Give the backbone structure.
Amino acid sequence: MKLKKYLALTRAGIIEALQFRLSFVVMVIGNMLYLIVVYFLWKAIYASAGTDVVNGMTFSDTLIYLVLATALYNFMEMYTVWEIGRNIQTGKIVLDLLKPIEYRKFLFWSYSGTFVMQFLFTFLPTFIVVAVVTHGAIPLGINLLYFAISVVIAVSINYSIDFIVGTICLYTQSIWGINIMKQVIVLLLSGATIPIAFFPEPLKTIVYYLPFQSIYNAPLSLLLDPSPSANTVLSTLGMQLFWCVSMLIVSKAFWKVSLRQITVNGG
Amino acid sequence: MAAIIEIKNVTKEFKVLNRREGLKGSIKDLFSRNYKTVRAVDNISMSIEQGEIVGYLGPNGAGKSTTIKMMTGVLEPTSGEILVGGNVPYKNRTRNAQEIGVVFGQRSQLWWALPLVESFRLLKDIYRISDENYESMLKLYQSLVDIEPLLHKPVRQMSLGQRTLSDILAAFLHDPKIVFLDEPTIGLDVSMKAKIRTLIHALNKEKKTTVILTTHDMGDVDALCRRIVIIDKGKMLYDNDIEHLKGFFGSYRTLKIRIDGDLEKQAEVIQKELPEFSVSSDEEWISVLVDEEKAKVLDVLSQLQKTHRIRDMQLEEISTEEVIKKIYEEGVQ
């Protein structure tokens, strides 16, 4: 079984994550603090706007969107760039390269355990709380299935982008600046910090042609639309799939070319 | 027997940025860069057979790790050919990985937070080791070292020695054809070193695994290797049996004497008396490295006895360590 070796990595990741109880607590608290800030910020924005509906979204629409976006972020953020950068700087990358698994897959599956844990401990609780508190603002129907499919594709796109940025570390040998830049760009242009509905028209158009909105905006809009037309679903998923495949190809090719650059420390 | 590793005229060059000094230089570096080519490995050829333990020696920065990285497929040679188990390593890195095991003494491939047995299970799945082979390997390990207490200990709580031991066991787990050990005994105490040498020796014998060992500890070499390869500044200096190496320099013996007075000054005096040999001194002894082809040790001793009161003396065979030191310093003539 080929899948077995990947699932073994997932399993190890889960066990590993369970060793660090405190980091979970810290993560949940940090998450709550962020959501409180978001709540008051947008409350102020709506108060100063003077109307109940801004850019076609009510206060509670916006808040639900952003809370779920944050939850999605917590669960999808893989810290791939850090990981690759650190592995390069410490030279550990040599050992990972010498596993009989492609490095790209090795890294992804090594992280997948944390993934599962974060889904169960941050995304799911947030989702349930939002669903209960808002009394059905999240429609529960076929859209959940679309959402699930969309998230799976989003994870893949997100990972490919991270991997591309991580590959750049092979050239620069530094991580910090690149990672911060990537984070800001992705979070802003994907609609994770500000709903895309709030963007000015030209920016909206640009964003539409970029891969980032497929990461957060696409799954969330599928989730929050109670009765999406078949057309919307297909075009959203189709767009995501397009980006998924093209990012995959780019990240693989870029890695292959860049690997020749490796001059691992020491030697 | 067919060679398992075949290296032919391999050269590896790195481009290194020539950094200018100071703040001004650093700013200049941002705009114009000045690269120079460094030849880390220079035209090396060797052939290693299945089941050999080869000591791969050289001073720091000689190009040892670079050669190993080329053999494992992490680096691509600038020119020349490498075949490992019939594969070109950098072209088939993933396939090659299945056939080799690697231990870098200063890094661990084990999962930091997990007990050792979990790392083993992971490696079992990653390398697709069958249940039978896995069980029999664990049994073999059990018979060689006491692994039971290690198995359930998280790797991060292990001592360096335990971790290295575990790393070596992990590298042999999938029964690879070749294991690369890069300074496995670095930083370990004497008893742990001995334990690790015994382990490597036993695994090599039991599994016919080819072992490439780099080390700075001549104890490792004496205990494990029949053949050694020495490189320095990327060039190969020596490739032959360890006995042959001693024979090469075997006509040398060290005569150690203890006399009264300031040893350093006395050593200078003796050096003048014996201009053809090198004389050195430490806190206790004055050592004369005697080339027996030029003069007998006893003749030298009686000559010294005429002019000095010798309180004590010792005669030493030249050790591998000194031979290597000599080669590092002077090269093979």
Q: What stands out?
A: The CA atoms of residues 68 and 127 of chain A lie 7 Å apart. Chain A touches chain B through 27 residues (CB under 8 Å).
